[in-house]
Amino acid sequence: MLSPLVPDLDRLREELLATTPEDKAYYRGKSAAKQAIDILTRAGVLLPPIYGERGTDGVVEGLAAIAEQVGINPKVVYNPGSGLDVAIAEAFPDARAIFLDLQDEVAEDLSRVGLEAYSGNMETFLLPDGIKADLTLILNAGSMTQVSLDKVVAPGGLVVVNEWHRAATFMQNECPSYELLDISGLDLNVHGSALEDGANTLFAFQRTT
Fold first, then answer.
1. Is 91 exposed, middle or buried (0-12, 13-18, 19+ CB in 10 A)?
2. How many helices (H) and strands (E) does the chain have?
3. Which of 59, 76, 133, 193 is most solvent-facing, going by the fewest CB within 10 Å?
4. Which segments of the chain are extended strands (E)?
């Protein structure tokens, strides 16, 4: 069934907005369909709704452009706090892509479609096999301390963040071993728009130690 932490928006619309029997029936049916899809997904009958290039509005292209400009061909890429976003795997199809999320269900869904995914906290998680990432993407997932980054980012590796939760500002102020790269010549606005605070812009930092 639907997680109790996730509101059933169609049920809320039915209760708050529907004024005719037809509207009430529409929202009630849509809510029931969503619950059925969730049950079938959890049972393994349906694949989970993994999304990538078409659902991330420029993230795939932005990551590939950053790597090309910096001159790296990442062998290991890592996306903590990924949710069901697989943009990093699509940007670097030949790399080993590793995903991490706090929710067990997210890791299970990604694993079921053949991706390498784990559940855990990005501040304490260590990459398997003692490896470190050549490129780490933290998108809309907050920030990581320099101590935590050093455990998963290879020397010379890139960390790409946006400014949701002030992640880019945090890295500039609190992670002196990570240098902000000048990639201003690239169009790195994502999610379809540019915001004045940089929330929808990708920033790239390179580990210097």
1. buried
2. 8, 7
3. 193
4. 76-80, 96-101, 116-119, 133-138, 153-161, 178-180, 203-207
Nearest 5°: the CA angle 78, 83, 86 is 55
d(CA 58, CA 54): 8
Strands 203-207 and 96-101: unpaired
pLDDT tens readout for residues 68-108: 999 999 999 999 999 888 989 989 999 999 999 999 988 98
Task: Find the distance separating the first CA and the last CA of the chain, reported in whole Å.
Answer: 47
> In the 8-state DSSP scheme, what is residue 181?
P
Architecture of domain 53-207: 3-Layer(aba) Sandwich (3.40)
114-149 pLDDT per residue, tens? 899 999 999 999 999 999 999 999 988 989 999 999
Locate the domains of the chain by residue range. 9-42, 53-207
C-alpha separations of 196 from 56, 150, 164 in Å: 20, 30, 12
Structure token pair of residue 173: 């102020």
Question: Is 0.70 surpassed by the pTM of this model?
Answer: yes
